[in-house]
Design brief:
With about 600 residues, the protein is an alpha/beta fold. The protein folds into 2 domains: about 190 residues, no CATH class; about 375 residues, no CATH class. The protein contains 19 helices and 14 strands. The chain has an 8-stranded mixed sheet, with helices on both faces. Strands 1-4-3-2 form a 4-stranded mixed sheet. A two-stranded antiparallel ribbon has the order 5-14. The longest helix has about 35 residues. The radius of gyration is 26 Å and the shape is elongated. The relative contact order is 0.13.
């Protein structure tokens, strides 16, 4: 089948299997469509039919109308409008049209998916790599990257063998500008994010809300489905304007079986992706993007519990902000902080990142590395930049770079999404290895052509992203090196006594970076903990350097894994949380209790 339309928008789909087993058409939706067919005097069929060979998949799915192979099906046209389009169709006189047949939505979509299966899957995996090879992690490192890595790594090892002190001094000289930039960004963001006053935004009423697509990728997550569906059904958004797509994998029988017995609402669809490479979350998201009907789109992970008013607030902000604002980043909050020491540290880390650092950067118009969930997009822009890179295991960070390269900006969405943090070290470690490996992929991908990265009038934006991504990665890799050197030096030689002005200058720079680094690391954590009413966890703050050592260990393992299996996805299991802080109120910037989160109402205003 030829896939027409904008190729970048065809990212998705689904199995060539009939999904009626996963989401049976035996509920209210089935009856409404059947009744409409009878009232319009046209035929009704829930059996598979044969599409015409040139049906454009995306347009047919969106419009709910497709041409049929009349010889094979007995009809020329199949109809299956969206729920919102049913009323409009009922006003048309279709009586006497023997060539028209009405189909239930799942049968209609499965019919088209089966025909477009191979092309859609290829698009989901390879469209970005094929159309923008310089912006996909699929092609890996260039020879220039390989030679540079060998030169720097080999040179450092050789220097360390010949003169450890000079090797460390050289490493410090190379990394000081990057670490200084990272410290300045964190401290500046901390001050701005903390001192900025919220501004009221008028929330849109139901009649003004656009269609909103919600993509929820699942893989081996049957345990969280009840919680997930409960959270999705609590969203304060008109169901007829929601387009929720649950994305599952073909071999995930447990999740498929858990969904099979459910009677899902009309606005929740199940898409099943066949086996393919790479087996990553961004490939699944691309599979959902092609069928997304919304002008706006967001992603939720399996365990997410977004604030019910989040979509309404995001839609209202998008209406108020300029078109150059392509993405809003929601605030991720660790809910199971009391499960273990790791979850406590994770909770403080996220509070510092999303409530202090990222919020401050976005308020000043600077970009951030996106989180993997609760990013809200203008769907047209997302398609314009090529969707997600299926080969990058931190598709969120990569997408932040591509948005900047295309001249778009990201803004803060002060709405919470509760998340579950891994409570046990093995699972936490695998997740961090994936994140660090993805940062490596992203840096390699977007430094292939510095001219393209900086040549679009977004130089400062690109520099900030490079500092955030490279700074996070290199600080994790170098932290144990500097720590071991400092401990050994102090143990063997005592406090340094510079003999020359150059030595004094080097020691001064080291001291300033160490002090600034500690402040930039610790203070945002304290401020975020106060904001999130996690003050009872601040006593664990002295363990933060040890926690950073764990992150460093993950970075070094990621370096090895990047060389061996760059696109291997280390999955995080969910549904294991034992505690919850969901009902704890969130404080305002002054530390006063603001009460528990409230769902927004159409007539209310919200502060951002």
């Amino acid at each position: 089948m030829r896939m027409s339309g904008v190729d970048a928008e065809k990212d998705a789909d689904l199995s060539g299997h009939d999904l009626s087993n996963s989401c049976p058409d035996n509920g209210p939706s089935h009856e409404r469509y059947k009744d409409l067919a009878e009232s319009c005097g046209i035929a009704w069929s829930s059996r598979p039919l044969t599409p015409a060979p040139d049906v454009p998949f995306q347009q047919a799915i969106a419009a709910g109308i497709a041409g049929l192979d009349e010889a094979a099906s007995g009809f020329r046209i199949a109809l299956s409008p969206s729920p919102a389009g049913l009323a409009a169709l009922a006003r048309h006189d279709l009586g006497g049209r023997a060539d028209v047949v009405m189909m239930p939505p799942s049968a209609f979509r499965a019919m088209l998916r089966a025909q477009a299966r191979d092309e859609v899957l290829d698009h989901a995996s390879n469209h970005l790599a094929r159309t923008r090879p310089g912006e996909s992690a699929c092609t890996g490192m260039t020879s220039r990257h390989g030679w540079l890595a060998a030169l720097v790594g080999g040179g450092f090892v050789l220097a360390l063998w010949l003169s450890p002190q000079k090797a460390i001094a050289g490493l410090s000289l190379l990394t000081t500008p990057l670490f200084f930039a990272l410290i300045v960004l964190r401290l500046g963001a901390m001050i701005d994010g903390w001192l900025a006053r919220p501004t009221p935004v008028t929330l849109l009423g139901d009649a003004d809300l656009p269609i909103y697509s919600v993509l929820v990728p699942l893989y081996r997550e049957p345990a969280v489905i009840p919680q997930l569906l409960a959270a999705l059904l609590k969203l304060d958004y008109p169901p007829e304007r929601l387009d929720i797509k649950i994305l599952i994998e073909e071999d995930d029988l447990a999740t498929r079986d858990a969904l099979a017995g459910l009677s899902l609402p009309e606005h929740i669809d199940v898409l099943m992706a066949p086996d393919g490479r790479p087996r990553t979350k961004p490939r699944a998201l691309n599979i959902g993007l092609i069928e997304a009907r919304g002008a706006l789109l967001t992603i939720y992970d399996a365990e997410d519990r977004p604030d019910p008013g989040q979509l309404r607030l995001a839609a209202s902000l998008f209406r108020a902000l300029p078109a150059s604002t392509a993405c809003l980043q929601g605030r991720l909050v660790i809910d199971n902080a009391d499960d273990s020491l790791l979850t406590r540290m994770f909770a403080m880390e996220y509070a510092a990142l999303f409530d202090v650092v990222n919020a401050g950067l976005m308020r000043t118009g600077l970009p951030v590395l996106l989180g993997g969930t609760s990013n809200h997009f203008r769907t047209a822009v997302l398609r314009q930049v090529g969707g997600w890179d299926a080969w990058n295991v931190t598709e969120d960070a990569d997408l932040a770079f591509r948005l900047v390269r295309s001249g778009y900006r990201v803004a803060d969405l002060p709405s919470d999404t509760l998340e579950e943090a891994p409570a046990r070290l093995p699972m936490w470690f695998r997740q961090r290895v994936r994140w660090m490996k993805g940062f490596m992929q992203t840096l390699v991908t977007h430094t292939r052509s510095p001219r393209r990265l900086f040549g679009n009038g977004q130089t400062w934006q690109a520099l900030v992203l490079l500092a955030l991504c490279a700074g996070t990665l290199l600080s994790a890799l170098s932290y144990p090196i500097f720590l071991i050197y400092a401990v050994l030096s102090l143990s063997l030689f005592g406090w340094p006594n510079p003999a020359t002005a150059m030595e004094a200058a080097i020691i001064g720079i080291w001291s300033a970076l160490t002090a600034g680094g500690l402040i930039a690391m610790m203070v945002p954590v304290v401020l975020g903990a106060v904001h999130r009413r996690l003050t009872d966890l601040i006593g664990w703050l002295p363990l933060l350097p040890v926690y950073c050592l764990l992150i460093s260990s993950a970075a070094w393992v990621a370096l090895v894994e990047y060389a061996r299996a760059p696109s291997q996805w280390n999955k995080t299991d969910h549904g294991l949380a034992r505690t919850s802080r969901r009902n704890r109120p969130v404080a305002d910037h002054a530390g006063r209790s603001a009460g528990p989160p409230r769902a927004a109402t159409p007539s209310a205003t919200s502060s951002v």
